[in-house]
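Attaching the record inline, Q. Sequence:
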Amino acid sequence: MDVRNQTLVSEFIFLGFSNITHGQVYLILVFLTIYLVTILGNITIITLIVVDSHLHSPMYFFLCHLSCLDICYSSVTVPKILANLLLQRHTISYNHCLTQMFFLMACSGSECWFLAIMAYDRYAAICQPLHYSHLMSPRVCMQAAIIIWIWGFLDSAIHAALASKLRFCGDNQIHHIFCDLPPLLKIACDDKFASEIAIHIATFFVGLAPFLFVAISYFYILASILRIHSNSGRRKAFSTCSSHMLVVILFFGNGSINYYQPSTGYSLESDTLISTMYCIVIPMMNPLIYSLRNQEVKRALQKAMESHRKV
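Structure, as predicted:
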């Protein structure tokens, strides 16, 4: 059956920035700056990891994948936001909306598990140092990365397929700044049951399970660090985890607010701000956090800059 025959709307209207009548030029400049910093920052991280042999380790292998996801995150949402602000027409076609939702949820699901496997890498390095090379061998890392990517896109494909069967009965105003499943379900007029069940299942396997995996890993990591007698040893062990811990707090913290906020006291302005933080600002902050707080990345960056000056 043709997708267009299943809905009475052919496009959706974003209400996130609809109330902003003045200062759109400044908003465009802000989003454009964020997007450029996100792309350049994450490409820099990927380049450093590929070029510098000192960064050829499991932690940076997964960080490379995380940077790829952050680039995808921004590229899925920001260009459309910029185009709508420039044209002053906050709309998106039905098919484009489903496509945007598909890639957004695929990136989100994959990033949750990449952050989880990065926590396990720190656990193996600190708590199981004698078995680290076996637990995090190149083969294991590659297999984990492939499984995570497949899992993220498979989960997203299920949600997108169910969303394509939703009927909207003429209501095409999305209380959001991009297409995501929860806002679409709010305006759908029937056939929500399957999508809602899928969301509840995904809440555990894509959201809660990786978060618990991270929490358990860091419980053992902190226990091991506290058993280290020297203060310098504790600081050194903790420094290898601090960047990742900060990224985890930002990602899961904003994600839980974005997807699991209470329906009472709903505010379009607050939801727009939370969504902007979760899918647009955080992908920009991740490379900054790793470059400013990680000594190995800072040394690799300084080395690359010195080599560039000599050339």
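The mean pLDDT is 83. The chain has one domain: 8-310.

More tomorrow.
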